[in-house]
# Entry
Amino acid sequence: MKTIFIWIALSGGLFFLLVGTIGILRFPDLYTRAHSAAKCDTLGAVLCLFALMLYNGLNFSSFKLLLIIVFLWITAPTATHLIAKAYHKGKIRENQME
Amino acid sequence: MKRDIISIKALVLYMIFWIILAEKIDFQVLLIGLLINIMIYLFNKNGESSCHIGKRYQLIKRWKLFICYILLLMKEIVIASIDVASIVLSRELNISPRIIKFKTRLKGDLLKTILANSITLTPGTLTIEVKNDEFTVHCITKNQITGVKNSKFEELLLKIEEQ
Amino acid sequence: MMVEKLLIFSSVFLSLTILLCTIRAIKGPNPADRLIAINVIGTKTVVLISIISFILKESYFLDVVLVYALISFIASIIISNSIETNRRERQ
# Structure
């Protein structure tokens, strides 16, 4: 029973990570690439780590994995937003200098 | 007066983190953890974040709404990823990206940060800049714009903010 | 048994996706494109090391993963700050 949940969560996580990478390769502009990196990457990583938590049972290592999941959830979209903001401000300054 | 006494809440949080890292509950672990936590607390005492642990009472008092908010966020990110997957895997990309600005009615800094993070995690939108009251947001398709202007997140956060 | 085989397959699959992401890091015409690719590679490395720690059954790799996630976040903040303040002209 638990094995079926682990299979579903791990394959879902790997699928979303693959879609995120294809999105980075295919989109034409930086803002759209940041979309794919912020959303699909976070969800794929969280699902994979959640499957590892189920595989381990109730243990101290599961608490460490939970801590890593919370940290990735909060900081991965924030880092992508900072990169988009830096690009936006650089483009505004370049348009003003011409 | 309150700043001279060591804040208990910060020490409890550090101790929980230390026990998770050390993987067993023992006398030596607790003793060394206590010494290291006190040193870390004294090192960060004059900074911003260690004074504010007791002050974020808005979120802790209304914890039911906060849990509803977190569940809504989890549902939204699943829908968002499926949306991006359906755009990426289709045969030709039909996207029309645009940048919009809008004003918000929230006042606190922490709540504006949470709203900006949630806008990044909803399908089709990405926060670019937050500047006193004005959000700059980038959308992928044209019909996401109405979803941003009166979104469910802002209503929930306004309900949390009024006391 | 079956979960072990699935973990080994997923670690190989994850390394292939990291290789695909490096193409964007080499090709991207902006420094910001490369930075997004490096961020994604960092997140994937976190998942890869966690899976390997369960294959080899050693529990101390998770401490390495925690520190690596923190360092990758700080690196992304610092490099994006440097892109914002000194913007070089691209020909």
